[in-house]
Amino acid sequence: MSDTILMAKVADALKLHNVRHEVLACSPDFADTAAFCEHYGFTLEEAANTILVASKKVEPPKYAVCVVLGTTRLDVNRTVRSLLDVKRASFADAETTTALTGMLVGGVTVPGIQGLPIYVDRAVMNANRVVMGGGNRSSKIVLAPAELLKLPGVEVMDSLAVPREPADLVQD
What global pTM score does this model have? Predict the structure, then answer.
């Protein structure tokens, strides 16, 4: 499938940094992780979620992009707070995410993000392949996790995420 269905800046970053990948078209109705995996036959162990985190009550705010597997939960209260060196942090809202990344929630991805720290949970790197957003809600990219290391600003972190409880795995 062609890179033309990806957001242009995502396709450009993948090409610029020679990131080997496949492109998948997806219905915007199935862009969120659980729905995508169920509909397109991927597992949550293969789904790499890209999340923008924002500090709270700090001016100017601090931000970080975090990548975790669908089987895990981002450890905002300990690890991410520590990385940002703030007392409080949480997921950025959709408006802030779009403003800072230029991407829609459900399609946010590492390629094409500039000027923000990018932290990838070590568990992501242990997967054979991962599927992540294409910058929009109508495309995804599939790649070997090591390909992410070709992108500027990517840092692999231990304990960025914690395992989800079994009851949480059915939610997105």
Answer: 0.92
Q: How far is the C-alpha of 11 from the C-alpha of 63, rounded, in Å?
A: 23
- Residues 53-110 have pLDDT tens digits of 999 988 899 999 999 999 999 999 999 999 999 999 999 999 999 999 999 999 999 9
Beta-strand relationship, 63-69 and 118-121: parallel
Peptide bond into 60 cis (omega under 30): yes
- What is the C-alpha separation between 84 and 75, in angstroms, rounded? 12
80 vs 44, 83, 103, 119, CA distance in Å? 22, 5, 21, 9
Architecture of the CATH domain 3-159: Alpha-Beta Complex (3.90)
> What one-character-per-residue DSSP string does 60-106 give?
S--EEEEEEETTEEE-IIIIIHHHHT-S-EEEPPHHHHHHHHS--TT
- Sorted by where each begins, the domain ranges of the chain are 3-159
Is the pLDDT confidence value at 169 over 80?
no
